[in-house]
Design a protein that fits this description.
Strand order of the largest sheet: 1-3-2
Structural class: mainly alpha
Number of strands: 3
Radius of gyration: 19 Å
Largest sheet: 3 strands, mixed
Shape: globular
Length: about 270
């Protein structure tokens, strides 16, 4: 009886963590030793580090650029309301704009802190294109690719030290490298697929990400110099696979919202 009582007392503090660890996407076969809270904690620390470095990450003020922020965050809300993002109610899904017209990129930290560069916003022509790219980045967080990739790059013990606030130097490195984090080809393909899955129940054309890749190809920007293609599947294959996924799911949305998107870009001009 004493042994049983000791075991119960020993396990009680661990129950919340065990329950949280059990909350896992049922079709996710990866082994991720981080909890959802770990993802959010790491993401928050990275966000704080990014905001503390305005020279490298000039974040647009959300009050001064309120219409632009409202529009961008509205895109995220539409994607989340589609009902296919597994951690919709667990991650924070905060969105910020980085002013750098020379960068065609967006990234999402573990836990759902998303950053979109003005260069990407101004490069695209319609809302569904940006929604497709953002769906791709949401997938990296929702499918927990970011934690997997960071663990491979830094090691589990080092990353846990960051989560618990005892490794500031590595935190700075993570913040600096997150925009160019190397994902595996399988993760990139899965994120492309899920960009379609997320957009399919919405009014958007679900192959918005393919439109972005097509533009890169047409403009000669898909040769491999961009981070999008340095280790990713070829742009031509990605277009084909995204469009095939849309056909497989029989997505019927046709919204592109070109006019409202042009107004959104105008709101980014100081």
């Amino acid at each position: 009886m004493k042994k049983l009582k000791f075991l119960v007392l020993f396990l009680l503090p661990a129950i919340p963590f065990m329950m949280e660890a059990c909350k896992k996407n049922p079709d996710d076969n990866s082994i991720n030793l981080f909890t959802v809270s770990d993802d959010k904690s790491l993401g928050l620390q990275v966000k704080t580090e990014i905001f503390a470095n305005p020279g490298e990450y000039p974040i647009l003020d959300s009050v001064q650029y309120k219409p632009a922020y409202d529009y961008l965050r509205g895109i995220v809300t539409k994607i989340l309301d589609g009902g296919k993002v597994f951690y919709k109610d667990d991650f924070v899904w905060e969105t910020y704009i980085i002013k750098d017209d020379n960068v065609l990129n967006a990234f999402c930290t573990p836990g759902g802190y998303m950053f979109v560069y003005t260069g990407l916003i101004k490069y695209l022509e319609a809302e569904h294109e940006l929604a497709g790219v953002m769906g791709h980045e949401i997938a990296h967080a929702d499918r927990r690719h970011s934690t997997d990739a960071l663990t491979q790059q830094y090691g589990l013990s080092v990353l846990l030290n960051v989560v618990f606030g005892s490794d500031e130097s590595t935190l700075k490195n993570i913040a600096g490298n997150l925009a160019t984090l190397k994902f595996s080809r399988s993760h990139e393909t899965e994120a492309d697929d899920y960009s379609v899955v997320y957009l399919c129940p919405t009014s958007y054309k679900a192959d918005g990400a393919a439109a972005f890749f097509k533009k890169l190809i047409d403009n000669g920007d898909g040769s491999g110099d961009l981070e999008w293609f340095s280790t990713h599947p070829s742009p031509d294959n990605r277009v084909t696979e995204i469009e095939a996924k849309k056909a497989e799911l029989n997505c019927t949305g046709n919204g592109t919202f070109d006019a409202s998107y042009q107004n959104f870009k105008t709101n980014l001009i100081p």
